[in-house]
Each structure stands twice: as C-alpha cells, then as structure tokens.
Amino acid sequence: MQGHATTHRTIGLADAMLLLVAIIWGSSYAVAKQALWFYPVLGFLAIRFGLTFVLLLPQLRGDGRRAVRPGVPLGLVMLGIFLCETWGVMLTTASNAAFLISLCVVFTPFVEWMMLRQRPSGLLFAASVLSVVGVWLLTGGVGMTLNLGDGLMLAAALLRAVLVCLTRRLTASEQVPPLALTAVQSGVVASGCLLLGVSLPGGLPALPTSPVFWSAALYLVGFATLFALYVQNRALGRTSATRVSLLMGSEPLFGALIAGLWLGERLGLQGWLGGLLILAATFCALRSAARPTSSQPGHAASAPA
C-alpha cells in the first residue's frame, strides 16, 4: 500500500514537472521574440546553441561518441528548423508561432507514410482536416493572410516531423544517449549559423550588451533546453509516452496566454477558435499514435530544443 502511494506521488510529481516544461516551452516564443529585438537571427542562434554545445560537451565522452554519426545529419535538419522557426517568430506573433509549430504532431504520421510506408489511421486524416481549418481561422479565415512568418512556422513544423522520423531511422540500431545527441546537434546548428552570419555582407554585429538579451539567451539554454530535456527523459521512465505527450501538448495554449500577458498580443475569437482546433487536431494525432503500441514515441521535439 505504501509502495503504491509512493508511486502515485512520483507520477504526480512527474506530471507537475511536465506541465512546468510545457509552460517554459510556451514562454520560449515570447522570450525569443524579445531577444530578437537586440540581435539578428543568425547571431542569436549561434549564441544560444553555442552555449548549449559547450555545456553539453562532457556528454560526448565514452558512449556519447555514438551520437556523432547520426547527430551531424540530424543537426543539419535542426539548423533548417531553427532558421525557419526563429525568423518565423520574428515575422509573426508569438501566439501564432506557438499554435502553428504544434502541427508537427499532425504532420509526423504523414511523413512516416512517405518515409516508412506506414499509412495513417482514419483518425489522423480527421485530425489533418481539423488542423487545416484551424490554420485557416488562425490566419484570418475568409480574409486569410498567411504571412511569411506563418509560412516559415509551417515549414518548421514540417521539418520537425522529418526530424522525428529521421531520428528514429538513424538511431534505431544503437542506443544513443539523448544529451550527447543534443550536444552534436547544437554544435552543428551553432556552427552553421556562425558560418552563415559571417559570410553575409556586413557579417554579424558586435555582441549585444543588453542584459535583457543575455537573460533571454540564458533562459532558453538553461530552462527551455537543458532542464526541459532532463524532465522529459526522467518522466518517460516514470509514466507512459502518451501521458507525456498529452501533458506537453498544452504548450501552445500556454504560449498564446504568455504572449498576451507579456507582449500584449491579442487573438480575437476567430483566432482562439483556430488555435483550439489545432490543439484538438494535435490531441487526435497523439491518441491515434498511442493505439498501435504503447512503446511508440508520442511527442517528439515539437518545441524548442
């Protein structure tokens, strides 16, 4: 009886920590948008992922070296994701960004269909219809204006779905430590952004001195990346992948709420309805993904790494 109570408390703590991570990831869009007021996208990403790489460098010892081979191509895909996502955040509202990036959960089964020949269920087709209607409402409905920022967020969501499937394919044959894999991917993203930044006319400006920028960068590294990965990995050992997915699926809602409170962004009734339809589509996709096998990963990398 005592053991059951202890297990129940452990699961409750894991759930609470996952909700905290969902709040942190939801806030990351507003934080990144604020950081971009002080420094360009390529420089911001080079700093963010360069710091992450340095902090995770010790993970590449021993078994962590296995992460190098899959980590490089996965890092290149991740580079594309964060270029689209960060420019997208800069060019659209943080609330739109939070809802649109969550579509990667709906896109993933269709990417699996193309890459792995696994046909999605009927529920997933219904989810895709819900998501299309949600995007239509979120971006203006009848007077729909899908701006460049919204388009880049949709591209980032699609690339995240590709990253999930490619990660499964490249890491299926061997146990790759997740923090070591994140280290390699972060190094590739930081290097790619730095090379792109210095090759452009004018290069990168001097490092920003604003404490707001550095607070934002450290918050994203420390909380949205390292702390979030630690909690997610610990929770997966204590509860089901589906439960983790459902709890983490609340991230876009927190993103929209925080954008409203922090940045003063306002979604009208139509925008909220579109966002909630996207959330409903996400949960339908997660529920469908949980049906074939309880070991199938549910929610992978739908939020900033």
From TrEMBL:
Keywords: Cell membrane, Membrane, Transmembrane, Transmembrane helix. Its main location: membrane. It is a multi-pass membrane protein. The chain crosses the membrane at residues 12-31, 37-60, 72-91, 97-116, 123-142, 212-232, 244-263, 269-286. The lineage of its organism: Bacteria, Pseudomonadati, Pseudomonadota, Gammaproteobacteria, Pseudomonadales. GO terms for cellular component: plasma membrane. PANTHER family: EAMA DOMAIN-CONTAINING PROTEIN, OS03G0707200 PROTEIN-RELATED. Signal peptide: none annotated. Residues 14-139, 148-285 form the EamA domain. It is found in: Cell membrane. This is DMT family transporter. Coiled coil: none annotated.
